[in-house]
Every structure is written in structure tokens, then in C-alpha cells.
Amino acid sequence: MIMTRGHKIFNIVNIVLLGLLGLSMILPLLNIIAQSFSNNVAINAGAVGIWPVGFTTGSYKLIMKDPTIWTGFRNSVIITVFGTLINLVMTTTLAYPLSRPEYLYRKVILIMVLITLIFSAPLIPNYLLVKQLGLLNTLWALMLPMAISSFNLFVMRSFFVNLPVELLDSAKIDGCGEFRILWKIVLPLSKPAMATMGIMYAVAHWNRYADAVYYINVRQWIPLQVRLREIVFTDQFGQSDVTSELLMFLSPEGIKMAVIVVATVPILLVYPFLQKHFIQGMMVGSVKS
């Protein structure tokens, strides 16, 4: 294809705009990381840019010695791992039958799901439901009520609809039941969609904050994001002889930045392992055969 002058200008403008957009996202993150490794004098003087000034790991040492950080981290990992597994199982087992034309009442169920997508339930009915189920002050309150996302369900169903019908019919002729077809044929072909849904669900669980504030009052079960909020907005650090001594030589801003890094890095580390499937999954449902 011959590139015209207009195409070249368009490409240059795209590169410049996307580059500026990328910098606007990366620079604040670099500043946060730099402050987390800088000493209190440089931070208080506002001398930290995108590179640490007066390099120190004191903020991270304080975090590692704060048991409440580790408790919140443990809870967030449990919520993210098991919550995502529940999401994928529930979404898949509902999306698959809704994608098959031979199943009765699928249109009625789709309409009901669509209603929940347009009109979400208010807070008080949700709270009363969680309370009646006995889920208050448990990690289940942050996993079970959000077992299926209506949007992700429609995306997954759209992917299943585009699977070759002949492949599924041949499996039925060979004697495969529905669960075996789903496990042996549909799921292996759905890795891009599963990876995309998994990342979306995992990020939502890892960043779970509002629901934890509503449903959990026991500090033993608060996730990392709630503990992060306490540190960022109220300067509530874990108190011990070690932390009190470290606080004398550290800037509260540096500690806050270190906590933000600790809370952000784990979910960022997951993306490279799913990048290939995630890029393919972004096209899920966009092309119809």
C-alpha cells in the first residue's frame, strides 16, 4: 500500500499524541517510585522528580515490619485468586448455554441479565442481602455477590457464539456430553477470552475498597486497599518500637508512596504472563462470521 502525504501526517500525529498520553501515565508512576526510595529531606524539599534523591529503602523496611500490611496483602490475594476463579467458573457456565440456540428460555434469561446491566441494585438492598446470607465480616462478602459481571457475561457469550457449530456437533456425534464439550473443546479454544475476563475480574477484586468498607468491620479481614487508604489519608502506621524508630527518619509522603507501589506491583506482574492472550481477547466479539 502506497502511503500518501495525508496518511504520513496522520501517523505522525497519532504517534505524537499517543506518546504524550503514554508519558502522562508513566511519569506520575515514576515519581511515586522515586519518592518511595528518597530520603525525607529531599521529599520535604520537593526535590524528587523521576529519579530517587538520597536513596533509601527505609520506607519499605517500615512496611515489611507492619503486620497490618501483610494481613491486608494476604486478604487481597485470597480475594483476588478465589474471587477470580469463582467469576470465571460462574460466567463460563452461564455464558455457554446462553450461546447455544437449542437451549430453551435463553432469550428470557438474557433479558433478565441485561436488566441488571442497565439497572444496578442500590446499596441498602445489597447490604441486607449480604447480611441475610450471613456473609458480613467475611471475605465471602467480597467474592460471592459479584460472582458474575453482566458485561463480561455478554462478552464471553459473544465469543462462544462465534465458535464453529460443526465442531460442537461432531463432538456430540462422538458421544460427548455438554460438560465434556465445555471442558475439552470450548475452554481450550477460549483461552484469549478467559485471559481477558480473568484480568478484568482480578483487577476489580484487587482494587476492591468500597464493598470492604460496607461489609467488613473486623480489621482481621480488611483488604490491602482499605489499609492503604488509612495510611494515605490518616497517616495510621503500625506502631511498634521498630516502626516508631523508623518514623523519626522517614517522610510520611515517602511511606505513602511505598505503600502505593507495594499495592500496585503485584497486579502489574500478572499482565506479562497473559499479554499474548489478553491482546487476542480484546477482539472478542468484535468480528462476526
UniProtKB/TrEMBL annotation:
Residues 73-274 form the ABC transmembrane type-1 domain. Keywords: Cell membrane, Membrane, Transmembrane, Transmembrane helix, Transport. PROSITE patterns: ABC_TM1. It is a multi-pass membrane protein. The chain crosses the membrane at residues 12-34, 77-96, 108-128, 140-160, 254-274. One of its GO terms (biological process) is transmembrane transport. Its main location: membrane. GO terms for cellular component: plasma membrane. Belongs to the binding-protein-dependent transport system permease family. This is ABC transporter permease. It comes from Paenibacillus oryzisoli. The lineage of its organism: Bacteria, Bacillati, Bacillota, Bacilli, Bacillales.
